[in-house]
Amino acid sequence: MTTADGTAPKTRPVRLCLSLQVADALSYLHNVERLVHLNISPQCVVVTRKGMWKLMGLGFAQTWTEPGQQVSK
Questions:
Q1: Triad 58, 61, 65: Cα angle to 5°
Q2: Which domain holds residue 15?
Q3: Residue 22 lies inside a defined structural domain of this protein
């Protein structure tokens, strides 16, 4: 995770808060949009100057299917 100026958030509470926000975003993608991100990495999370986070890198996302079904692209 990096801020708009290219540095990482400094405090543990900030990093934890951002991690939970990313987890919420992934939960939304999975449960509501039925997508799997497939490329989670620190480079896929950007923190704006206002402290808002953005989940990036959805180019590898695929539709989530039930177990035993084939994943679509």
A1: 150
A2: 2-58
A3: yes
Contact 6, 48 (CB under 8 A): no
Q: Is 46 among the domain residues?
A: yes
26 lies in some domain: yes
Q: What percent of the chain has pLDDT over 90?
A: 0
Q: Taking a C-beta distance cutoff of 8 angstroms, is the pair 40, 34 a contact?
A: no
Whole-number pLDDT of residue 51: 77
How confident is residue 55, by pLDDT bands cut at 50, 70 and 90? confident
Q: State how many domains the chain has.
A: 1
User: Where is pLDDT greater, at 17 or 70?
Assistant: 17
